[in-house]
Amino acid sequence: MNEQLLLKAKKILEEGGLVGIPTETVYGLAGNALNAQAVARIFEVKNRPAFDPLIVHCYSIDQVKKYVSAFPETAQKLAQSFWPGPLTLVLPKKDLIPDLVTSGLESVAVRIPKHPLTLQLLAMLDFPLAAPSANPFGYISPTTAQHVRQQLGDQIPLILDGGPCQTGIESTIVGFQKDKTFIYRLGGISLEEVEKIAGKTEIQIHSASHPHTPGMLKSHYAPKVPLKIVDIEVEGIWEELLKKHPAEKTGALFFRRKIPQIPAAQQIVLSEKGDFAEAARNLFAALRYLDALPLEVIYTELLPESSLGRAINDRLRRAASSGD
Ligand code: TXA
Ligand code: MG
Predict the structure, then answer these.
(1) What is the pLDDT of residue 160?
(2) CB 27 within 8 A of CB 19
(3) Residue 261's Cα: distance from chain center in Å?
(4) What one-character DSSP code corresponds to residue 266?
(5) What is the pTM of this model?
(6) How far apart are CA 89 and CA 79, in angstroms?
(7) Residues with CB under 6 A from ligand 1
(8) Are 19 and 158 in contact (CB under 8 A)?
């Protein structure tokens, strides 16, 4: 069955069309990265501003080398350690990559995703796939085929269903400047893991005023119901909060436990056992679930600021920043 779907996907992509693809991080909206028209269509379907460059997906390091003009040693080590996997490397681009893909930047973001279906598809194609997350710009990234179908289903001819995403948050974006290593976006590979291979690494998250990595716009990944970060350990906090919105209009997204003051069906626990990877895997589906309820507010809390907790907190802060 997969074979036929893959052939159908191949045909659509060869003709310049778009396909929803599973990856280990989130679902992507994929098109031929070498075809400027297909790339333009990606921006159009996502309603994405042209200044926000795309990630190019390949199936092997050899294929990546066709599209980058330099591949520093640290980058190669990271690639060998984490590909296929949730790591994106920003490297100098060759002219083969259309300017539209990189929003005119001289660098291109590349990665090898870790999903058997998508790796199989990539191996069948003689071009790489440009793919942003398959959500309307600014909304929560999709971690199931159903999420993609709900929002973009009528605009794309095919979504490959590869099951729920195993990592659940986007790839970590790493770049290099003058022999130094930088993380431009926190994601599925933690700072600690990057540093084990690359040594000292600085987190340099770009802001809206410097749209080098506009996936990093302050308000992003945002639900429609306002999300607010609170400290649930503060005494008397629920008395205060429930004065602003009644319990039946309040949702909660906490790390390890539900709270008794709010109906249980309006609460999601990210990981009862306090496991960061499990929390990351559940995060976006939880936000979508709560966002679909008739609520006035969703309360959430930050996780400990280490390992994948950092990336989860980054998404929560962005999701919350349009809440005020
Ligand atoms: O996990 C992922 O990376 C997913 C899956 C589908 O692979 N893709 C994804 O794509 O998250 P998107 O488009 O939602 O985010 C891509 C990010 C943006 O923040 C963009 O600004 C940054 O990559 N980016 C792309 N090219 C860049 C470049 N040349 N320099 C710096 N940042 C770049
Ligand atoms: Mg995105």
Answers:
(1) 98
(2) no
(3) 32
(4) G
(5) 0.95
(6) 8
(7) 23, 25-26, 28, 52-55, 86, 88, 90, 102, 105, 107-109, 113, 131-133, 170-171, 173, 184-185, 212-216
(8) yes
Which residue stretches of the chain are H helix? 2-14, 36-46, 61-65, 73-82, 99-102, 116-124, 145-152, 191-198, 237-244, 276-291, 308-320
C-alpha span between 22 and 147 (Å, rounded): 11
Sites in the chain below the pLDDT cut of 70:
1, 206-219, 322-324
Dist CA 162 CA 145 (whole Å):
7
The position carrying tokens 């990351």 is 280
pLDDT per residue over 284-293, tens digit each? 999 999 999 9
Q: Which residues contact 223 (CB under 8 A, 6 or more apart)?
A: 140, 287, 288, 290, 291, 298, 319
CA-CA distances (angstroms) from residue 5 to 161, 177, 319?
10, 41, 34
> Ligand 1 centroid vs 30 CA: distance in angstroms?
13
Residue 169's Cβ-count burial label (10 Å; 0-12, 13-18, 19+) is buried
What is the amino acid identity at position 318? R
Instruction: Convert 125-170 into a string of H (helix), E (strand) and C (coil).
Output: CCCCEECCECCCCCCCCCCCHHHHHHHHCCCCCEECCCCCCCCCCC
pLDDT of 222: 83
At residue 219, the pLDDT reads 65
